[in-house]
Each structure stands twice: as C-alpha cells, then as structure tokens.
Amino acid sequence: PLRLSEYVQIHPTMFYNEERIGFLISEAVRGEGGRLLNSDGEEFMSRYSPAWKDLAPRDEVARAIYNEMTRTGSSHVYLDIASYAGDSLNIHERFPGIYEECKKSKIDIEKEPIPVVPGEHYFCGGVLIDNFGNTSLPGLHAVGEAACSGLHGANRLASVSLLEGLVYGTRAGIASSKTDKKEEYFPDILNWIYPNNISTTNNDPLLILQDWNNLNTTMWNYVGIIRTETRLTRAESDLRNIYSRITDYYRNTNLTKDKIELRNGVLAANLIAQAARRNTQSTGCHYIKE
Ligand SMILES: Cc1cc2nc3c(=O)[nH]c(=O)nc-3n(C[C@H](O)[C@H](O)[C@H](O)COP(=O)(O)OP(=O)(O)OC[C@H]3O[C@@H](n4cnc5c(N)ncnc54)[C@H](O)[C@@H]3O)c2cc1C
C-alpha cells in the first residue's frame, strides 16, 4: 500500500527563470542574512512569522511566498543577499555554485536580488516499507523517495533523504540477497498484446504536452501549498477526467516512453489528490484553509 501520499514537500526558493529548469537556492542563503522581497521590493516575512522572519520553517516560508505571489499577481518573489550580507561575507566564495548558476541567467547575486519561486522538492509518502525495505508484496523492496519509511513524518528535514537512502538501501540490499525464491516472486512477464484496431500513427506530441500542462496546473493550483475543500474536490474531478482520457489513449495507441510516463504521472496525481482530500490536518508540507 501507499502511505502519506499527500505530503509533498515544497522548497520555498527555486531559481525562477521562464527559459530554464529551476535549480535550488539553498536555505543557507537566508541563513547568511538573505531576505525575501515581494515584487514591490518589500520585505514580507516579518508579517507572516514575526518571531522567525526569513528563518521560519520551509512550509511557512513557502506558504508566505505563495500568498505574496497570489496577492500581488506575480509569478515569483526575490531573495536578496546582496543588500543584507554582513561585511565579512564573501558571497561569491560562500555560494560558488549558486553564483555560477545565476550568472548563466545573467543575475549577479553580489549586486542584485535573485528571482525565486517555491517548487516541488520531496515526496514524503510512498510505498509502505518496514525497517528492511520490505513492501507488502513478497520479494519486492522499496527504498529512497519511492518508499515511505515514516522517517520524515509530515515534513522532511534537510538531507535526511541521504541518510534514508543509505541506511534503508543497505538494509534492503542485505534482505533481498537472502531471498532464495526469486523465480517464484518474479515469474516471466508476458509480452504486451495490442488490441487489433490499434492506432500506430496517433502520436501527436501536442496531446501529451497539453495533458502534462493540465496536470501541472491542476496539481499546483488545487493540490499544492494551500489546499481547500473546493480546490481538492475540483482536482479530483478534473484528474479523474484526465485519467480516463489518458488511459483510453494509452490502451488504444502504440506504446511510447512519453505515454507511459504521462500515464504514470496522472496515476500518481490522482492518488495524491485522493489522499489530500481525506486528510483534513495541516501538520507539515501543505496547509488546509477552511
Ligand atoms: C532540487 C533538489 C535538491 C535536493 N537537495 C537535497 C539535499 O541537499 N539533501 C538531501 O538529502 N536530499 C535532497 N534532495 C532530495 C534527494 O535528492 C532525493 O530525495 C533523492 O535523490 C532520492 O533518491 P532516490 O534514489 O530515491 O531516487 P532518484 O534519485 O529519483 O533515483 C531514481 C532513479 O531511478 C531511475 N528510474 C526511474 N524509472 C526507472 C525505470 N522504469 N527503470 C529504471 N530506472 C528508472 C531514475 O532515472 C533515477 O536514476 C533534493 C531534491 C531536489 C529536487
């Protein structure tokens, strides 16, 4: 079984750029004094977390950014280390990777704020495992982000996934090497049989692109950082429709990697949305608004 699928951790600050896939702007930048500014150039974290301000926990910061973006109708906010770094901090030396990556997008972090946006970071739930990576299916082990060991609770702490991968990976490896009934667990997989009237030409890439766009916006807007009953109800209904259309497409056309990935994506999205609908608590990762 799957557990805790609704707990999708969002990192508050991914680099924002319309043309490139975002990379992560480490929380250490805020640790060194960096401040978040909205599109009007105003510092806003003290309004959301008077005690911790920019050093509030991940989910609180992500929620505050999301609120500011919604309020100002902006696609991103800014993280400013240039104006707030102490005299002793050499930004370039302290954050060489971030400096170089931002430079590729013509942002000089020693002189100007970094455009940032919250982004999907870690799936806390997954296939339920025991302490040795065993799933409920005999002989099948799961480890890492695909698994739910319970180690992360409702909100993973930084770098714990590395620990989880190493510890559970080793344990599952040892456990699976002791299994002596491999043939019994994994019989030969039968060949895929296409129906007679299969379409081998209906491979329009726009169909797949459009479905991914639908999936992305539905998940981000309705099953994202802030969830409401209305949003989740809509998500479930929309995702059910997308799922049924994609399953039909998947069954009646020839298989390609893109189609398999899309089908897996929509299946995962459905499971996450259903789990989100059942959970009325805000204990970490996401926040339920009445
Ligand atoms: C931007 C970002 C920054 C992060 N920073 C940190 C950090 O600082 N510290 C930390 O602890 N964690 C961090 N994480 C989380 C961490 O990177 C992941 O949780 C971790 O990499 C998961 O490892 P994994 O081996 O379980 O899965 P993956 O790294 O996703 O590995 C799964 C592998 O399976 C392969 N695969 C998929 N499908 C198939 C298939 N059908 N057949 C064969 N192979 C397949 C994939 O290609 C991939 O290589 C970060 C995550 C992100 C997104």
From TrEMBL:
It holds the Pfam family Succ_DH_flav_C. One of its GO terms (molecular function) is L-aspartate oxidase activity. One of its GO terms (biological process) is NAD+ biosynthetic process. Its EC number is 1.4.3.16. Pathway: Cofactor biosynthesis; NAD(+) biosynthesis; iminoaspartate from L-aspartate (oxidase route): step 1/1. Its cofactor is FAD. Keywords: FAD, Flavoprotein, Oxidoreductase, Pyridine nucleotide biosynthesis. InterPro entries: FAD-dep_OxRdtase_2_FAD-bd, FAD/NAD-bd_sf, Fum_R/Succ_DH_flav-like_C_sf, Fum_Rdtase/Succ_DH_flav-like_C, NadB, Succ_DH/fumarate_Rdtase_cat_sf. Residues 213-287 form the Fumarate reductase/succinate dehydrogenase flavoprotein-like C-terminal domain. Residues 6-162 form the FAD-dependent oxidoreductase 2 FAD-binding domain. Belongs to the FAD-dependent oxidoreductase 2 family. NadB subfamily. This is L-aspartate oxidase. It comes from marine sediment metagenome. The lineage of its organism: unclassified sequences, metagenomes, ecological metagenomes.
